[in-house]
Structures are given as structure tokens and as C-alpha cells.
Design brief:
44% helix, alpha/beta, 380 residues, binds flavin mononucleotide, TIM Barrel
Length: 380
């Protein structure tokens, strides 16, 4: 199957699986512990049923949306994910950023990107955000924020569900690390993915590009564990918010109480997420947490949603249950791994086509019209 014949995100996942060494595919595809939250994020969408309004003029459908001051052509955007060059060594972050720019959507860059902020800014001139953590070394954080501002990033996203990396057992089994280490297992997996390996060998080594000047000897995961302060609290989040001064989102909120705390420190957006099931396993599916959080926020901040989005109907459901915009993670990463920029563009196209068709089928012509009454309330 070629890229053009990929009809849905599941097809892109299959293409990614064929192209990548197993350890890299598993790093994208996997989750924590028994991967219960990972699966539930996807499956719980299937339990939600939609109803439609018939005989509505749906000749023109407007998919535009706005989030944290950014106008977008679509109500979904690129979620931050670490080290894109690992998934497509030649294209990396710039391939994703270019596809997002062409689609008119926000690009949110991971702190652990394998490309510098300055290079990403050249690939995406539209609204772009930087995801951050509160490192032990505050000077390092301040330096990063100053660089982000200088490179024209308009928002920052503080991820709060990662006081320590989750237990991703597939990675341990595969001897996986960033950058990859050579062991018998990793070498034999690499040999089974010749096209990927040729790209990897022809391009510069993968690093946490924004911290390259720090001379990381041990690799990104070790760097993260060393820099993660496990004593970070809401006071530190407030410090981050004040130090930055611009648009600010708190990512990784899973309860109404934390949503109110985020509002309390002045967040512009509360980002409902469980890190795609990669952190605390047996956390509820993200979509199950959304309605109560939307109710608690009561319009005092915008709401971003991620977790398990693979279909246009998933986007509709999250918007109907209170989200202002949806972030996609694996959906575009499968496209990136399958075919670089073209693959990301294909992932965005697939979701756009599905969303437009779904809006017509639902009888709703605007994103603001995707409201809770579309969700079927089953009588038990
Ligand atoms: C391979 C991978 C790397 C990720 N890296 C980061 C990261 O660096 N920072 C972050 O805040 N979230 C990260 N995430 C989480 C995503 O931003 C997002 O919350 C998650 O992927 C949403 O779930 P989905 O993949 O089902 O769409 C990562 C996710 C994946 C799959």
C-alpha cells in the first residue's frame, strides 16, 4: 500500500510499522505499564454515539477555529512530541512544521525537539507554541523562553503530567534509547529497516537540539531524568506563567480541581491530556474526563483536548463535549514515519476530509455548532 492508498489513520500506522525499526515504532505506538489507558483513550470514543439534524443546508461547511489567540483553518493542531527526527531522520520537526503551516494550523514544538527553535520558526511562520517543563536549572528555562520569544513563538505549554518518565515497557524490552545505542537487539531491528537506516546514516546524529550546547553525554532520557525536579508545584507553574508573560496553557490536566488550579494561576488554556497513555496507566480515558473539566472551567479559560483521536468523529465528540481545539499526537506521527512531510499532510487531509463529511452528516456547518445535543444519551 502506498501513501495515496492510505484511507485512514490506521493505514498510516501500518505504513509506519513497515518502514520503522521495531524499537522506534514501539516508542511511538506504546504506552505505560499494561497500556490500559492507551487503549481506552481510543476505545472510549467508540462508546459515544452521535445523532444528527436532517434536512439542513450543508452546502458550505466552515471548519475554522481559534485557540489561544491563534486563528486556524481547522479545529485541530500538532501536539508536541519529542525528537521527530527519530521518526523521519531527514524530515523531522521541519517536515511536520511545514505540513502544519500549509494546513493553516498551530505547530506546538516539544522541548525535546531534535531541531532548534530557530530552524522550526523558518519552517512554520504561522502561530507556533513551545512545550516546556520546569527544569531544575531555572536559568536554562529562562534562556529557552527568551529564545522562544525571539524566534516568534506566541504561546508556551507547560506539561504537568511528567514528574518522572512513565514505565514504557516496550522501550526497555527493545533496549531503546534516544539516541539509539548499538546492541544486538537494536542492530538486528535496524537491519530489518534498510530505507530508514540509510536516511539515519546520511543525516546528522539525533540530539535534543535546543540543549546541544550543554554537551549531553548520556542521552536525552537521562538528561530529562536529571533535569526533572520532582518538587515542582503550582507555585512553579505560576512562576513560569509570569516569567513568560504571553499565552500560556497547562497540559496534562485530568481533574476538575486541577483545571481550577490552572485557571487560578492565570492559564489561558487548560489542556486535558493523559500524555497519550504514556504516563500513569489506568488513568481514565481523556474523553471521559473532558465533560467535568469543561463544566469546572466554566469559560474562564479555553479547553484543549488530546488523547486517542484517530477519526473525524473523535474530533466532533471532543468539541461537542466542551473542547475549543483538539491536539493530535500519534495520528500525525504515523504519517511522519510513513513518508515525512507528505505523510503528515496526508494525516491532516484524512482528518480534515472526515471532519467535513461528518459535519455535513450531522447537519452542522460551523465548529461552534458542534454542541452537546449531538451526543446521544442512552437510557439504561
Ligand atoms: C512519541 C511521543 C512523544 C511525545 N513527546 C511529548 C513531549 O515531548 N512533550 C509533551 O508534552 N507530550 C509529548 N507526547 C504526548 C503528546 O503531546 C499527546 O499528549 C499525546 O500523543 C496525545 O495522544 P494521541 O497520541 O493518542 O493523540 C508525546 C507523545 C508521543 C506519542
Amino acid at each position: 500500500m502506498g501513501l495515496e492508498r492510505a484511507r485512514n489513520i490506521a493505514d498510516l500506522r501500518e505504513l509506519a510499522r513497515k518502514r520503522l525499526p521495531r524499537m522506534v515504532f514501539d516508542y511511538i505506538d506504546g504506552g505505560a505499564d499494561d497500556e490500559i489507558t492507551l487503549r481506552r483513550n481510543v476505545e472510549r470514543f467508540r462508546d459515544i454515539e452521535l445523532t444528527w439534524d436532517a434536512l439542513v443546508d450543508v452546502e458550505k461547511v466552515d471548519t475554522s477555529a481559534a485557540i489561544m489567540g491563534a486563528s486556524m483553518r481547522l479545529p485541530f493542531f500538532i501536539s508536541p512530541t519529542a525528537s521527530s527526527r527519530l521518526f523521519h531522520p531527514r524530515g523531522g520537526e521541519c517536515a511536520v512544521a511545514r505540513a502544519a503551516q500549509a494546513a493553516g494550523i498551530v505547530y506546538a514544538c516539544s522541548t525535546l525537539a531534535s531541531t532548534t527553535l530557530e530552524d522550526i520558526a523558518k519552517a512554520h511562520q504561522g502561530p507556533r507554541w513551545l512545550q516546556v517543563y520546569v527544569w531544575r536549572d531555572r536559568a536554562l528555562v529562562e534562556e529557552l523562553l527568551t529564545r522562544a520569544k525571539a524566534a516568534g513563538f506566541t504561546g508556551i505549554v507547560l506539561t504537568v503530567d511528567l514528574p518522572v518518565a512513565g514505565n514504557r515497557e516496550r522501550d526497555g524490552r527493545n533496549d531503546f534509547s534516544i539516541p539509539p545505542r548499538v546492541t544486538f537487539r537494536t542492530a538486528s531491528q535496524a537491519l530489518a529497516a534498510p530505507a530508514y537506516m540509510a536516511d539515519m546514516l546520511a543525516t546528522p546524529p539525533i540530539s535534543a537540539a535546543n540543549f546541544a550546547h550543554l554537551k549531553m553525554e548520556s542521552g536525552i532520557i537521562q538528561f530529562v531524568n536529571a533535569q526533572f525536579s520532582r518538587s515542582v508545584t503550582w507555585e512553579d507553574a505560576r512562576w513560569m506563567r509570569e516569567t513568560w508573560g504571553g499565552k500560556f496553557a497547562v497540559k496534562g490536566v485530568s481533574t476538575p480541581d486541577d483545571a481550577r488550579r490552572a485557571v487560578g494561576i492565570g492559564a489561558d488554556a487548560v489542556w486535558v491530556s493523559n500524555h497519550g497513555g504514556r504516563q500513569l496507566d489506568t488513568a481514565p480515558a481523556s474523553i471521559d474526563m473532558l465533560p467535568a473539566i469543561a463544566e469546572a472551567v466554566r469559560g474562564d479559560a479555553e479547553i484543549i483536548f488530546d488523547g486517542g483521536v484517530r477519526r473525524g468523529t473523535d474530533i466532533v465528540k471532543a468539541l461537542a463535549l466542551g473542547a475549543n481545539a483538539i491536539a493530535i499526537g500519534r495520528a500525525y506521527l504515523y504519517g511522519l514515519a510513513a513518508a515525512g512531510e507528505r505523510g503528515v499532510a496526508r494525516a491532516i487531509d484524512i482528518l480534515e476530509d472526515e471532519l467535513k463529511r461528518d459535519m455535513m452528516l450531522l447537519g452542522r456547518t460551523r465548529v461552534s455548532g458542534l454542541t452537546r445535543d449531538l451526543i446521544f444519551q442512552r437510557r439504561v
